[in-house]
Predict the 3D structure of the following.
Amino acid sequence: MRTHTWCGGWTGSGKSTFLRRVAFSLADRYSPAEVQLVVAEYEAACLAETAYLPNTAEYLAIDDVPGMHRFTALLEDETRRRLALEARGLLQHAPPLVVLIDQVGLFAVAVPAFADAFWRIAAVGERLGISLIVAATDTTGWSQHRLARIFNRISLMDVSAGAASRAIGVELDAAPGHGEGLLRAGADEPRRFTPATVAFETVCGARFGPWPGSFRAEPVIPPRGLFTYDELVLRLDAQDAALHRVPLGLAGEEPVGLDPDRDPHFVVAGPPGSGRSTVLRTFLRGLPRRYNTSEFMAILLNDNATAGALSGRHLLSSTAGLEPPKAQIEEVLRALRHRIGTPKRFHGPRLFVVIDDYDRFEPAHDPLAALAELIPAARAIGLHLVLSGDRTLLEREAVTALQAPQLILDEGTLPDPTDDGLPALPVVGSGELAPAHLQVSLPWCGQPRQPYASPARNNFPMVR
């Protein structure tokens, strides 16, 4: 389980069935304490039932680019965590993790950062206890140098001898036919085999045993050294003065938070990958602690990484990616414009406009420019702006005019463990809160889990 496997073949050749077989066979043979699984596929198809295996820490049915970004963040977090465990001599306490990915080529084409995360694990996964088992229709566009790191290579029925040769890493005269496969381990000669399907007995055995009373695998946990949002809340709840604060992190051992009534706006700045979106998720999760159900609503612009941080009853609207937020801006103007100039304090909920990667919006679609008439009266009308972006954000006149507290994230990177020209992993988990000049340790507020509901669950209920 400390080697990687690549399975290539044409559509309908049985690649997904192969991954399904691996998942159920591992769950049938090993307890969740011995092996854990992360399973990702494009849309919900052949691997959906693996979501209910006791060994599955995370199952993702991904059909959009934001989902692929979330999966990339999950892989990077787990790599970062295991590197930290290795440095402290504690890696033996982390159970082996097997990552199964169907249609891996689609992920790499849509999200280049995913390819970096993938190749990093291919380079150091054996050392860190992470195994990749992936299926792809073709290897065109993949680096043959890096593909050589994949120890086991499988070719199933393919469209041509050339495609099969790229998948298996050796020149073939003909591609395997229907119901056939070729397996090559390391530099060995390919061996012909007949792929097996997943027997009903294997499915039942993996789902209902043979580990009675065993715990279910936990979701991928924070990188070591970070604490969770729930741990932060427990510390904050111990302080009476914390009632009016939205939690952000810890300064030493003391909880740090913001009161949006005192500071209506908030800016997060740092390099990509340093945790900007994580800070926004932390802030959003804290809003229901500060305000009751009727006291606030939120609009999320570019919600690739913030979707799911708020329940639907608090979410007024959102945009995916950097699409022009015209409808959302009009919604803000319509909701708040009539509050300007009223003699009494506004009635109705506060409105939080949360903009991730603000620096990447085109000038023609700048949300702050579109809201310029409301910003001078923001405190009086209940408008709150929360922005994230790189450090150039702090030089923009429209941002400095907000006079908002700024959380400036650290810019350090981890040493590259691969020595392969891949971008170094950013260090996450800390920053300076200005103008108070507090060094803040940030909680890990991971991507919300999105449970997958399968009709099969009613027929084969999971006993936990």
Notes: The chain is about 30% helix and 20% strand.
